[in-house]
Amino acid sequence: MGNSLKWIGAAVAFCSVSSLANADDIKIGYVNKMGDHPWFVAEVVGAQKAAEARGASLIAQDVQFNADLAITAVDTMIGDGVKGIAIVVPDRGIGPVVAARAKEAGVKLVAVDDDIYHEDGTKVPFVGLDSYNIGLAVGEELSNLYKASGWDPETVKIASIEDRKADTCMLRNKGAEDAFLKANPEFERDDIARVAYDNTMVNSIDVMTTTLTANPQITNWIFYSCNDDGVLGAARAMENSGYAAENGIGVGIDGSRACDAFGNGRASAFKGTMWFNPENQGKVAVNLLMDAIENGKDLPENTYSSPELVNMGNFDAYKGRLCK
């Protein structure tokens, strides 16, 4: 990563930079793949705040996982005169198309949450999470909780809840799996239940319920996914199927369902989440674009943020930020 890496904590400081005289003429586009999800709602709020602080205007478009609509949104924004675009792609396969359209129009481009590439394989500047290392943190926490549980390994099964069309998701799951198995060699990789889902909590409930039904001999479950929806859905499936809270250990990623999981004070198999402040990612994406547009700064290849573990024990300290 070298000099291409900047940390979001430092990048957020750009919010205080004064706008130059022509900032009022600058439009920034923000395309996101799931605008009704709390994570992406917060990202757009952060982007809006950054644009306002810099004296620019923001045009946001929710494409609801529709790749064709995402490309259309990019074209529309370019036609509307944006100088920069931040995009959360619904499908990484459209990356080369989006990158080519932006390059041809002379529009600065930043990918958020999911990395994308130009046709020649070079990476579009990226703001988001280091997916594999986040997964490692999840796996380490799962291991700590498992070792504290006192469970007999013969009663335990691991479920990997996977959105297989999203590389970011699979990297997070791989990190969690690698860390857990390294710390607990009594478990075999081939014994893990591979549970495909569509990145929504409702579907996670459905597919995990099916998995539980198919494994009636298993008393205790350990599970992970690429986001809170996958993990909380699995925890709800366990609850609905009659399992006690102490019979499941799941750790999520993103913090978007922490209020649902911990807000009522009732224990569940959802034991924690690796939280990132999504507002920061929206702010950083816009500020990087503005610095490139106004000041000619190079866009860094990668700008990563670090997670914080939120669980029932420390939830009150995060409640004000997570429950809005």
Automatic annotation (TrEMBL):
<dbReference type="GO" id="GO:0042882">
    <property type="term" value="P:L-arabinose transmembrane transport"/>
</dbReference>
<keyword id="KW-0732">Signal</keyword>
<feature type="domain" description="Periplasmic binding protein">
    <location>
        <begin position="28"/>
        <end position="297"/>
    </location>
</feature>
<protein>
    <submittedName>
        <fullName>L-arabinose transport system substrate-binding protein</fullName>
    </submittedName>
</protein>
<dbReference type="InterPro" id="IPR028082">
    <property type="entry name" value="Peripla_BP_I"/>
</dbReference>
<comment type="similarity">
    <text>Belongs to the bacterial solute-binding protein 2 family.</text>
</comment>
<dbReference type="InterPro" id="IPR026266">
    <property type="entry name" value="AraF"/>
</dbReference>
<dbReference type="Pfam" id="PF13407">
    <property type="entry name" value="Peripla_BP_4"/>
</dbReference>
<dbReference type="InterPro" id="IPR025997">
    <property type="entry name" value="SBP_2_dom"/>
</dbReference>
<dbReference type="GO" id="GO:0030246">
    <property type="term" value="F:carbohydrate binding"/>
</dbReference>
<feature type="signal peptide">
    <location>
        <begin position="1"/>
        <end position="23"/>
    </location>
</feature>
<dbReference type="GO" id="GO:0030313">
    <property type="term" value="C:cell envelope"/>
</dbReference>
